[in-house]
C-alpha cells in the first residue's frame, strides 16, 4: 500500500482489525460528534448488514425449533414432556420479542414459514424416528397458532 492510500484510510479501520470493542466505541463517538472524516464506513456498513442477517437467522432458527416441537407435541402424544412445553414457550417468546423489536421482520417471518416447516418436518421425523409421511406436507398450524401463547392442540 502506498503512503497516499494509507493516508486516505480512516484511522478507525486499524482498530476494527486489532480491537473490535474499541472500534465500536470510537465509531459511536465519531457518529455522535458528527466526525465523519475518521469514520470507517466500509466496516460499519458490513457490521450493520451483518446485524440484519443475524436477526433473520435467529428468527429462522427459532421458528424451526418451535415448529419441530409443535409437530412432536401433536404426533407423539405419549412422549409429551415439560421440556417440550418449555421449549415451545421459550421459542414463541423469543420470536415475539424479535418481531416486537423489529416489526418489519414480520414480512420475513411470513416469507419463511413454508421453508421452515419443511425443515421442521424433517427434524421431527429424525428426532421421533417416525416416518416423514407421519407429518403433513403442509403445516397444520396457522400463522397465528404458531405464535399464540396458549395454543397447543390436544
TrEMBL record:
What InterPro entries does this protein's entry cite? DUF29
Q: Which domain of life is it from?
A: Bacteria
Protein name, as recorded: DUF29 domain-containing protein
Q: Entry's Pfam families?
A: DUF29
Amino acid at each position: 500500500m502506498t503512503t497516499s492510500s494509507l493516508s486516505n484510510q480512516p484511522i478507525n479501520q486499524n482498530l476494527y482489525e486489532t480491537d473490535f470493542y474499541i472500534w465500536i466505541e470510537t465509531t459511536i463517538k465519531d457518529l455522535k460528534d458528527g466526525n465523519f472524516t475518521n469514520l470507517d464506513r466500509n466496516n460499519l456498513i458490513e457490521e450493520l448488514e451483518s446485524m440484519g442477517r443475524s436477526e433473520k437467522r435467529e428468527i429462522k432458527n427459532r421458528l424451526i425449533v418451535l415448529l419441530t416441537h409443535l409437530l412432536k407435541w401433536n404426533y407423539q402424544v405419549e412422549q409429551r414432556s415439560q421440556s417440550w412445553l418449555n421449549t415451545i414457550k421459550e421459542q414463541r417468546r423469543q420470536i415475539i420479542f424479535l418481531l416486537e423489536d423489529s416489526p418489519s421482520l414480520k414480512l420475513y417471518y411470513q416469507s419463511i414459514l413454508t421453508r421452515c416447516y419443511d425443515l421442521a418436518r424433517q427434524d421431527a421425523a429424525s428426532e421421533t424416528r417416525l416416518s416423514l409421511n407421519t407429518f403433513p406436507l403442509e403445516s397444520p398450524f396457522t400463522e397465528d397458532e404458531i405464535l399464540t401463547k396458549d395454543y397447543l392442540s390436544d
